[in-house]
Amino acid sequence: MKKIKVTDDNRLLHGGDYNPDQWLDYPDILKEDVELMKAAHTNTFSIGIFAWAALEPEEDKYDFDWLDKVIERIHSIGGRFIMATPSEARPAWMSQHHPEVLRVDAYRRKQLHGARHNHCFSSEYYRKKTQEMNTKLAERYGDHPALLMWHISNEFGGECHCDSCQNNFREWLKNKYNNDLKELNHSWWGAFWSHTITDWEQIESPSPIGENAVHGMNLDWRRFVTHQTIDFYKNEIKPLRELTPDVPITTNFMSDNPEFVPFTALDYSQFAKEVDVISWDAYAPWHTDQEDTATLASRVAFLNDHFYSMKNQPFLLMESTPSLVNWHDVNKAKRPGMHFLSSMQMLAHGSDSILYFQWRKSRGSSEKFHGAVVDHDRSKDNRVFKEVAQLGKAMEDLSDCVVGYQRKADVGILYDVESDWALNDAQGFGLKTKKYGETLQKHYQMFWENNIPVDVISKETAFDPYKILLIPMLYMLSEETAEKISAFVKNGGTVVTTYITGLVDEADLTHMGGWLKPLKEVFGVEPLETDTYYPSDRNSVVYNGKAYEVRDYATVLKLLEAESLGSYEEDFYKDTPALTKNTYEKGQAFYIGARLSDDFHRVFYNELIKTHDLKPALEAKHNRGVSIQARKAEGKQTIFIMNFTEESQTLLLLEEVTDCLTDEVLGGALELAPYETRVVEKRI
Ligand code: GAL
């Protein structure tokens, strides 16, 4: 595995997407950029992301001169560049002369040229052209001392339903099902509604005007889309691996927006294996009227931990906004201080960079009002620029106590995108209340409030390093995963799950023998049925003498070996168990049968934290909304103390620490202004 160069020269990366190709007719702007880059304390720029039209203005006629100059200017101020391959957006001549590159949508409509992200992943011509382009980039810039890494395309996503993609889908299925339609029909439960396939050619990708009711097929299609996206990516990186084997490769991942939950269009747990460094684009909806800042902060933390856990190593924040975006319903500006705080939070959770989209606001087209470091006023005196520069300076000063520092957690929460796909496809439960990603974030939040780090892992991650494993709403549960969970508990681990877990196997076929079948022994319960509530329905569960509200889901349980910790207060399952605990060999398994309120989770998880002796990096007392997160190195840790509230907060630090920026020794009462962050060091 390649090491990212940032750890070699010990600098945190600060900068972002730089699109000088928009400004080639404005030499004064290009000159000014370099001056402003220095003033903003920036050092790293991703270039060429959307530059294909400038790099190859006519088929096979290339122009790299302008890019040479841009790179030299960045280099002249000691900056580095992340070289992007431009495959996300093609030049118009290509679609005109080679229409096969255009995608066909699920309605089988060939798309017109436009926007970006609309190339066919199996187009032979496009694959050849991206390789040609990448070869030229590697030959020209591969040895440049300022080259930091490759940035492949941009935010891969989407799908194509053209004939060639259909053929590839069929080939992928033949391979998966050993060329045996009987196997496929069994897996897809083909006898239902006469959906038996008798010829591979009858298979067509899912479509709103065709097949969309075969869940096994929908699931396979999603898997295939991940496979073919990765295959396209692998085709793109081939020349880079050959010509520049030492230059690390990344591609920027993202979240599902605006919900701000894990991305569901691709299986990132598979994609992560193919990149050297994880990077992601975070556009958190700060200051909405939907949730308080602290709750959002915990969801940002969740996503950061998700990206950190993909490789269990620091990641890069590839894109963010210093001010506002242009695609939320309401595009509210970050309040003063929020940019610094939200950026520190990224570093705290394992990012080695703060990079923006984009360096300079466009003059025209669809992103001209999207936040950027340099505004249309070209000034370094405006609030946003000043806050960026202040952050850049702090990052320079903090590099030594952040770069090379890792995260470590005793708690893992399992996010399984395949389960997410299958659950969302399932016709049942509440259409609007499944909310798998949000549910995981709610469970995670209780650890965040206690400053206990949590890894957000996949089913392929080894579970044994953890003391507690959370698997809420793990709708899809294969025998293989069940065995891993069972071994984890047998060896002394604690597992917590909820309603709607273990209903189907990896083919989306229900487990014969009841829900949770593969883990019945471990949990010592049998879920009999799950009741789905209307939004106005309520029930409650009594736990330790206090009633907690139930919404959306309530599972009726039969106790096997488990003991009941709480029961329902209402309905036909009144007084039956809602919450159970089972001791299984050396470990424990908790089943939370109902969707319970945050105050229940708070009490329940606080107890678990105590009984498992989980300790935060820094012993302190504070209100909700303050978060303390740490990165560790040999014998020391850097701790970020962050105030996500709009009020001043007084903390009580029960240990002495040293401020990394001022060398001040802190202990006892510590006052934090609204949105303030202190970064401190502790010897361990
Ligand atoms: C990202 C994209 C950028 C820019 C940004 C705006 O998804 O990669 O190019 O469009 O959104 O927020």
Written overview of the protein:
This protein is of the alpha/beta class and 684 residues long. The protein contains 18 helices and 28 strands. Helix 6 (124-141) packs parallel to helix 9 (215-243) and helix 7 (163-176) crosses helix 9. The chain is globular. The model has no long low-confidence stretch (mean pLDDT 96). Beta-D-galactopyranose (GAL) binds next to loops. The site of beta-D-galactopyranose has 9 residues, from loops.
Which features does this protein show?
alpha/beta; six-stranded parallel beta sheet; binds beta-D-galactopyranose; 28 strands; 684 residues; eleven-stranded mixed beta sheet
Distance between the termini: 29 Å
Structural category: alpha/beta
Q: Mean pLDDT, nearest integer?
A: 96
Gyration radius from CA atoms, angstroms: 26 Å
Summarize the helices and strands and which ones pair or pack.
Blueprint: H1 6-9, E1 13-18, H2 27-39, E2 44-47, H3 52-55, H4 65-76, E3 80-84, H5 92-97, H6 124-141, E4 147-151, H7 163-176, H8 181-188, H9 215-243, E5 249-250, E6 252-253, E7 255-256, E8 261-262, H10 268-271, E9 279-281, H11 293-311, E10 316-319, H12 338-348, E11 353-356, H13 383-398, E12 411-414, H14 417-425, H15 436-449, E13 454-457, E14 468-471, H16 479-490, E15 494-498, H17 520-523, E16 525-532, E17 539-543, E18 546-559, E19 563-568, E20 577-584, E21 587-592, E22 594-596, H18 598-611, E23 620-621, E24 626-633, E25 636-643, E26 649-659, E27 665-672, E28 677-683
Parallel strand pairs: 1-2, 1-11, 2-3, 3-4, 4-5, 6-9, 9-10, 12-13, 12-14, 14-15, 15-21
Antiparallel strand pairs: 7-8, 16-18, 17-18, 17-19, 18-22, 19-20, 20-21, 23-26, 24-25, 25-28, 26-27, 26-28
Residues 154-155, 281, 283, 319, 325, 357, 367, 370 line the site of beta-D-galactopyranose.
